[in-house]
Amino acid sequence: xxxxxxxxxxxxxxxxxxxxxxxxxxxxxxxxxxxxxxxxxxxxxxxxxxxxxxxxxxxxxxxxxxxxxxxxxxxxxxxxxxxxxxxxxxxxxxxxxxxxxxxxxxxxxxxxxxxxxxxxxxxxxxxxxxxxxxxxxxxxxxxxxxxxxxxxxxxxxxxxxxxxxxxxxxxxxxxxxxxxxxxxxxxxxxxxxxxxxxxxxxxxxxxxxxxxxxxxxxxxxxxxxxxxxxxxxxxxxxxxxxxxxxxxxxxxxxxxxxxxxxxxxxxxxxxxxxxxxxxxxx
Length: 282
Prior knowledge:
Blueprint: E1 2-3, E2 7-8, H1 12-20, H2 30-35, E3 47-58, E4 63-70, H3 75-88, E5 94-98, E6 104-108, H4 119-122, H5 137-151, H6 155-162, E7 170-178, E8 189-192, E9 213-216, H7 226-243, E10 248-253, E11 256-261
Parallel strand pairs: 8-9
Antiparallel strand pairs: 1-11, 2-11, 3-4, 3-6, 3-7, 5-6, 10-11
């Protein structure tokens, strides 16, 4: 394999989407891909965003999201939070709905003009610089603060504590967009653990010879789980690269993208200096 130095990308989802939708003029919002699955007519909201459960820690001068502070919900937990939120916040022009995989979606009656950030960017950091911004940013920040108070000592959190699971101390609002946004056609396949790309398919195994695709993995290189990721996705993808069925592999982590093309027979991810060190991962 032949690989160059990592390049920087501003938005990895945008870059990855071009692989399966080369003709798309823009990247749909993350929320738009889920709203289309909910069947919300006739009470159709104008704007929606994801409401991701997180664990925040308040200090004397800052609020920090733990490095592993992005949480998952059981289906029953998501349903209970949605029902209670809609009871408590009823009449405020916003409600919670449950989408695929127990994802929570925040639905607004009017359009919101705000810039939001993926919680993955805030994980392990002071959240101040990652909160919603723009004309309606203050409205979303205020709602997020109200959600934190609502979640304090919530029955769902008492049950999680009894199970020795981290409490949900906040809902992170992000990935928003107009609900009437059209989704462009795609030519390719998707797999893995991302709310956006799951809307365009979720292959259980690598589809050999299927052409361009996007795989999103939560597992980190060097972790105990990473060898299984290599066997399931990288090994067959490299085989397609060697055979000429693929032109290149692009491996992204945050703002860095590592591109691999066909070349000498070199197992690039198992060399003495692992390839993931180029991403700043230890």
